[in-house]
Specification:
Elements (H helix, E strand, L loop, with lengths): L8 H9 L3 H15 L4 E7 L6 E7 L6 H10 L13 E3 L9 H10 L1 E11 L2 E11 L5 H23 L15 E5 L5 E4 L3 H8 L11 H15 L7 E7 L2 E10 L3 E8 L2 H11 L4 H11 L4 H8 L3 H15 L4 H9 L17
Antiparallel strand pairs: 1-2, 1-5, 3-4, 4-5, 6-7, 6-10, 8-9, 9-10
Helix pairs in contact: 1-2, 1-5, 2-5, 3-4, 3-7, 8-9, 9-10, 9-11, 10-11
Length: about 350
């Protein structure tokens, strides 16, 4: 598609329309396909702090190879999303494809001749990455430049989609207890707690009459393998939105020196606040302020802790309201901490002074 005239307009319009993160990515892929041809793809949301995949959306040649594909991707240093910076795009064909463990051991067998890798990162974190695979040809410099040009708007849209998930939990919302999925070093599922199946079905909806694919757990487990191999030093954990303002934290660890246990539990309030601040692009001062409020401090105490006047604290708080769309401290804290406004202290989160 080297001679095609490309326009960022359709991509920007999709980004501006917003939507939940899955719907947004589906529409972005459709718009990108008209501008940059590709045969297969992997569009993965990541934890903004750890850069570990949390919610993948992929079309691959063989679903049965997905665990192997993810494992090899995390063990491959070539064009890894964690090392891409400026430009945020890299083409496999511009170097020696054989240096890529993923291409050498899997993609070449599919007939993939080139991979375009794009990272979506801003100063608040890494929000996702996209890999486009092409068979029977390579991506051109103009296509790489186009992908680099749209990376900014897509990054902002992904971050907004994550921010929109921070809603106050509705009355009667369930609290999720710890779940466990046990994997082999090759990422074969060995066992799981009974409720894990339901979680996976909600997180990555499967095709009708098909079992859920534990792609999110594959990602954190593969990151553990990457850490052990010295490919990447980020912790093997990721936080992901499930539904109704519920955020979950996935962590991977070795069991008995061989198998890998992935634990899944509700994200604790402190971690939620950190994600909330990143997603809404709060400044350092605003983030510090919200942390003090979440810990139960009132305006006077916040002013004392931050060495500011109460008037300045109120100004910072107004800025936070403007950025997040919250109209009261109670609503702000309910969304950031994940509890229901007006509920009793039991099961609703920490007691706060508002």
């Amino acid at each position: 598609m080297g001679g095609v005239t490309r326009s960022v307009g359709p991509i920007v319009r999709v980004c501006e329309a917003g939507g939940d993160a899955r719907e947004l990515r589906v529409r972005l892929l459709e718009a990108l396909r008209h501008q940059v041809g590709f045969d297969f793809h992997a569009f993965v949301l990541t934890d903004p702090e750890t850069s570990v995949g949390s919610a993948p959306l992929a079309a691959v040649p063989a679903v049965r190879d997905l665990p192997r594909l993810i494992r090899l991707r995390y063990l491959t240093g070539v064009n890894r999303w964690t090392v891409l910076d400026e430009p945020p795009v890299a083409l496999l064909s511009t170097g020696d494809p054989a240096r890529s463990l993923l291409w050498r051991e899997l993609l070449a067998g599919y007939g993939v001749s080139d991979v375009a890798s794009v990272v979506f990162r801003d100063r608040f974190g890494c929000w996702g990455f996209l890999e486009l695979w092409r068979t029977g040809g390579v991506f051109g410099a103009a296509e790489a430049a186009f992908l680099a040009e749209v990376a900014g708007p897509v990054t902002a849209a992904l971050r907004r989609a994550q921010a929109d998930t921070f809603v106050a939990r509705p009355p009667g919302s369930r609290r999720l207890g710890p779940l466990v999925l046990l994997l082999s070093p090759e990422l074969t599922v060995l066992g799981q707690t009974p409720e894990t199946h339901e979680f996976l079905r909600v997180l990555v909806p499967p095709a009708p009459d098909r079992p859920p694919i534990p792609a999110a757990t594959y990602n954190v487990a593969a990151q553990l393998l990457a850490v052990e191999a010295g490919v990447d030093g980020n912790p093997p954990s990721a936080r992901v939105h499930l539904e109704g303002g519920l955020w979950l934290t996935l962590r991977a660890a070795r069991i008995g020196g061989r198998d890998i246990a992935v634990t899944i539990e509700e994200t604790p309030p402190g971690e939620r606040v950190t994600l909330f601040c990143r997603a809404y692009g709060l400044s350092g001062r605003e983030t510090e302020l919200l942390g003090h409020l979440a810990a139960g401090a009132d305006t006077r105490e916040v002013a004392r802790r931050m060495f500011l006047s109460e008037h300045t604290v109120q100004d910072h708080l107004k800025s936070v309201f403007a950025r997040t769309g919250a109209r009261s401290r109670r609503t702000l804290l309910a969304r950031a901490l994940g509890w229901t406004p007006g509920a009793g202290a039991a099961g609703s989160g920490p007691t706060v002074t508002v």
